[in-house]
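Worked problem 6 (solution included).
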Amino acid sequence: METNNNCIENGIRLQDGRIIQGYRKSDVSMEDTSRKSALDTTGAYFSIGKKPGKPRLTPDEELQLRNLFTDNAFLILANREQILNDSRMLLTPVPVHNGIAYSGEFETATLGVYLEWWMNAPYSVLFDEDGTMSLIWFVSGSPLTGGNSCSKVYEDGRRETARTHFSDIWPKFADIIADYHDAKLLYQAYSLPEVIDILKRETTTEDYVRNITAFYRQALMALYNTKLANWKARCEEVCGQRTFYQRKWFNTLIQSRQDKVKSFYEGYMQREEALKLREEAVKAENRRLKKMMQDRVLPFKRYRLLKNENLQELSKMSDDLTEYGRKGEEALFPELADHPEEADKALYSYTSMKTEIRKYFQDAGAGSADQRASSRS
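Solution. The predicted structure is:
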């Protein structure tokens, strides 16, 4: 018999990797267990094949069970570890008609599906501005438009429309439901009234408060971490786009006055090359002076004077090069003065423009060389 990775021999693998014992049904048929989950084109899992032979609940019975679920959602949450360690509680069906537009309903979720979803999908747990926590219990919407009519429940049982991005919540919910498919066919499950009765009898106020408080902190931290990661990714994307269009803007400016820019670039490169050559000459000269000083041919004071004169010469050449570049770019690109804001200085600075000018003509030179090589071949 083939099963999914979460349903193993006599056990169920949870989202965190734990394996708990499953209590096998006595009347499981091979036909039942061969039923699979189908992956819809929208990415959600839906049931196909033979349907269970259990009698269908009446609308009133479903409503009573849904109310029982939402009225006790936080009690269920407070006892998450107990439920996740007992497959009969884990597989308790919750008759909520979740689904997505144009595709239909998901398979029936269980208490385990909801608990593992709340624990592993940060956007399934919501926090109001005052910090009040609520849980999404009804999942319904369109992956295409993002429109949804999801619902959340508060600790006091109040149910309200959940304002959330549908794409943030439904994929994980569908995945977990699919993970539970085979286990629901193979193993026994309590009814929802049975589970609620057990939890109410065994849960103390102290345990309830402690467990809800712990979950609150964990869920809030998980939500913040997820939002930070999402914002970081969005910032990186926006920064990348800004750099892309900044370069486009620079190149457009260069192309609009290419002859003048080329003349400026060639003059700048000549001065820069002269500075590099002079730097090498000064280094050699200073090494010669140092040796003369060490050989006592040149007095130390004279050595220091000559060395400082050489360094001052290099400093002046460097300053002159910077001034030549600044004045040239100011004359060539008066548009740069239109962005005085502090945040834009790095983007529209003369240093940035100089870098782009250099890159523009280097790329152009490389392109010309490639064309010459192609023509020769």
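Discussion: The longest helix spans residues 205-256.
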